[in-house]
């Protein structure tokens, strides 16, 4: 029987992007379903009282670490020179499109735009195009994504994730077991094989 991977991610997290690049392969291999769990990394960090930005030494190391993994996976990665990109509305659209057939394609396009092409997704025009290409109603979703009920839903999802033990992104839950980091996908694979 197909198992389900809950995939907790934020678009602003480059490690979430790397995880996403590997999920398609796993889906094909194990015929499992992905339950997409868009989360705000900022809210999650506030929830575990870890709001301080990473130290410069860690940031420098992370760049190399990310490049090494991208090379290993053979996937494109463009890291911004400045700080992390902004993707607040994109994240809320991903949440608002729960249950819509185009959600997966929209998520894929945002990850690719940000991290493969190194382009921004802040503009509503860009988001509308990505929605349309995914067969989603861009205008309706943007309206919903910028409403207070999606803010409340995002906050609720953060609380729920914390209760499930999630403390960083990307995270995965298979059969109730939590795995943190795209570098733990081999354990996710083992859990799928059980
Ligand atoms: N080793 C992990 C690193 C993941 C990571 O550092 N994620 C960041 C967000 S991009 C995070 O959640 N940091 C919070 C923490 O480490 O507590 C991987 O390869 O995925």
Automatic annotation (TrEMBL):
SUPFAM superfamilies: Thioredoxin-like (SSF52833). It catalyses: 2-hydroxychromene-2-carboxylate = (3E)-4-(2-hydroxyphenyl)-2-oxobut-3-enoate. The keyword Protein transport does not apply. The active site is at 13 (nucleophile). Its EC number is 5.99.1.4. GO terms for biological process: glutathione metabolic process; naphthalene catabolic process. GO terms for molecular function: 2-hydroxychromene-2-carboxylate isomerase activity; glutathione peroxidase activity; glutathione transferase activity. Belongs to the GST superfamily. NadH family. This is 2-hydroxychromene-2-carboxylate isomerase.
């Amino acid at each position: 029987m197909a198992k389900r991977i809950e995939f907790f991610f934020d678009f602003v997290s480059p490690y979430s992007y790397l995880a996403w690049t590997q999920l398609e392969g796993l889906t094909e291999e194990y015929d499992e379903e992905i339950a997409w769990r868009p989360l705000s990394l900022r809210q999650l960090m506030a929830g575990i009282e870890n709001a301080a930005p990473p130290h410069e030494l860690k940031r420098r190391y992370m760049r190399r670490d990310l490049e090494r993994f991208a090379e290993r996976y053979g996937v494109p990665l463009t890291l911004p020179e400045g700080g992390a990109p902004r993707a607040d509305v994109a994240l809320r659209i991903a949440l608002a499109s729960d249950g819509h057939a185009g959600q997966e394609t929209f998520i894929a396009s945002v990850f690719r735009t940000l991290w493969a092409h190194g382009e921004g997704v802040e503009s509503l025009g860009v988001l509308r195009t990505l929605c349309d290409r995914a067969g989603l109603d861009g205008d309706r979703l943007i309206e919903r994504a910028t409403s207070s009920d999606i803010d409340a839903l995002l906050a609720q999802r953060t609380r729920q994730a914390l209760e499930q033990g999630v403390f960083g992104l990307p995270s995965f839950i298979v059969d109730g077991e939590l795995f943190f980091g795209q570098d733990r996908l081999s354990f996710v694979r083992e859990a799928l094989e059980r």
